[in-house]
Amino acid sequence: ILKLQFLYLIGVLALNGFMMAAPGAAGGVDAAPLPWESDDERVAVQSSLDSFGAASVDELDVPQAAQGGYFVDRGRGLWTNRAKVVGAVVAVILAGFIVAGTVGGRADKAPGVGPPAASPAPAAAAWNLTATTSQAPATTLPTPSPLPLGPPTPSPPTPIPLPPSVPTLPLPAVGEAGWGVEELTREILSFGPRPAGDLTVPPEHGHARTRAFLAAKLAELTAFDAPQELLTGPMWTPVGDRSFSNIYTRLKDAYVAPAARQDGAGKCHIVLAAHYDTLAPPQALPTYVGASDSAAPMALILSAARHVHNTVAGGAVPSACAVSLLFLDGEESLVKWKDNDSIYGARDFCKRWQRGAVPGWDAAHSIGSVTAFALLDLLGPRQCYNGACQIHSYFESTFADYTRLDALEEEFKALPPRAPGASAMDIISGKPYPAHISDDHLPFLQAGVPILHLIPTRFPLVWHEQRGVPDDVNAIDWAVMAQLDYVISGWAAGRVAGA
Question: Which candidate in 225, 377, 406, 477 is catalytic?
Fold first, then answer.
């Protein structure tokens, strides 16, 4: 009550002060008799005055300044009494904001209610240079309305049906057959479109087939835990509530050096991540399959995972890094890219990870243990590199990992050409670049995770087919893919080997 009375007084005093000081306020300028256009207007004004307890209408005047376009003053007494009413309204409005803020603040702390608590300042700050924007503007992530993000509806992880697993020991190496990046990319594209959050479709649908394919391929890599599928539970979207599915696994602890999983100089935990959904109509054609966005990045991660598996298969030296793999659903917007209509799976997974609620990931694999979160996107198309669009270092915190990628590319360029007349390209620029790009990394960045964003800027011509160039299998340059495979797999396997 005292707050309301105080706010009411402030509103009254503020409005009276404004009117007394403003040009045209009663007594502020020389006044002339108030001209009434009709008796009806005079009666109407008198009625208003009576309701406010103001002076007689015949005592009112209008400032000469009104001829210059100022508000016509209806008398100081009228303004004073109106100010009381307006002051009361202002007090009620401000009180409403205070009450709403108080309730919202309490909801933040209540389990399962309200928006998420503010994330700590990101440890992986972008380069301190003039920023440019390459996709939809990205600020902080507001809570979707009317259904806030908050702790998602509890939903236990649902294991994906897997083929019979091979024995864990001895660890067999996984050969090239079925694991080449071209073969992997073509197989994913053969499933067709993979619209975001499409979990109710039959098994033959592209989204379901992609999830089953990822699970089956990951199950072959027995150095990793059996893959798990973690559902978000219903999330607000502009087309109604939807659930999304994230698929993840990690290198088994038995193959990771203890020092890599503990705080200290030897701590190392890398994450390879990409989204697997595609843009859906009406934003894209019904035939849109997203070759570079993101079939090719998925293939590159699977290939890198095979190289990690084979690096630890011998078992002579434990891995110098913990390795996690993450395939995210719902990166694409469902209506129009906005902070609350995009990266659905990433937002939910990050929140769960911050709460330690990712099944199978213990404290040694907490979100705070990550030393490099490598997010792959928009990779593989032709007519994109050698200066037109390249992968730059977007975050200073992972520049050491980025320079390793650059060194691997130089190593690849020194190798004999894989095809007559072929020449390696400059895909990794080797330079910092302060692009601010909206992508799946944003929730993790805001949680303080060091980000290694493997995405070209500018975006390739095939991006979302906005320029009429299909992002299908014909858009992919397999020489580019071979080079990226060498660089990314070499980086991941090198970190495991301690390089």
Answer: 377
pLDDT tens for 242-288 read 999 999 999 999 999 998 988 888 899 999 999 999 998 889 999 99
**447 near 119, Cβ under 8 Å?**
yes
**With contact defined as beta carbons under 8 Å apart, do 110 and 102 qualify?**
no
The residues, ordered by sequence, that sit 6+ positions from 152 with a Cβ below 8 Å of its Cβ are: 232, 233, 234, 235, 348, 351, 352
Cα 49 to Cα 31, 58, 224, 436, distances in angstroms: 19, 11, 81, 58
277 part of the active site: no
Q: Model confidence over 297-325: pLDDT tens digits?
A: 999 999 999 999 999 987 667 899 999 99
Reference 454, options 381, 400, 402; nearest CA is: 402
Q: What is the pLDDT of residue 171?
A: 67
- Are 148 and 115 in contact, with CB atoms under 8 Å apart? yes
The total number of residues written for the chain in this structure:
499
Burial environment of residue 489 by CB neighbours within 10 A (0 to 12, 13 to 18, 19 or more): buried
330: left (phi over 0), alpha (psi -120 to 50) or beta: left
Written as six digits, the tokens of 473 are 């299998």
Identity of the amino acid at 344: Y
Is the pLDDT assigned to residue 239 strictly greater than 70? yes
Which has the closest alpha carbon to 169: 255, 280, 264? 255
Place of tokens 């002339």: 32
- Residue closest to 55 by CA, chosen among 77, 28, 72: 77
Q: In Å, how far are 394, 476, 480 from 381, measured between CA atoms?
A: 21, 4, 8
Q: What tokens were used for 117? A: 């608590």
Q: Is the pTM of this model over 0.90?
A: no
**Rounded to whole angstroms, how far apart are CA atoms 243 and 198?**
8
Of the candidates 73, 229, 331, 465, the residue annotated as catalytic is: 331
Rounded CA separation 119/319 (Å): 31
| Backbone region of residue 498 per phi and psi (left: phi > 0; alpha: psi in -120 to 50; beta: other values) | left
Task: Identify the residue whose tokens are 């928009």.
Answer: 378
Q: In sequence order, what are the residues at sequence separation of 6 or more whose Cβ sits closer than 8 angstroms to the Cβ of residue 78?
A: 48, 49, 52, 54, 55, 60
- Residue 204 annotated among the catalytic residues of the structure: no
Is 330:214 a contact under the CB 8 Å cutoff? no
Between CA 430 and CA 428 the distance in angstroms is 6
For 385-426, write each residue's pLDDT tens digit. 656 789 999 999 999 999 999 999 999 999 887 766 566 788
Find, among 328, 169, 170, the residue nearest to 248 by Cα: 328
- Between the CA of residue 405 and those of 6, 288, 374, 458, what are the distances in Å? 62, 31, 11, 19
CB 64 within 8 A of CB 32: yes
Phi and psi at residue 207, in whole multiples of 5°?
-65, -45
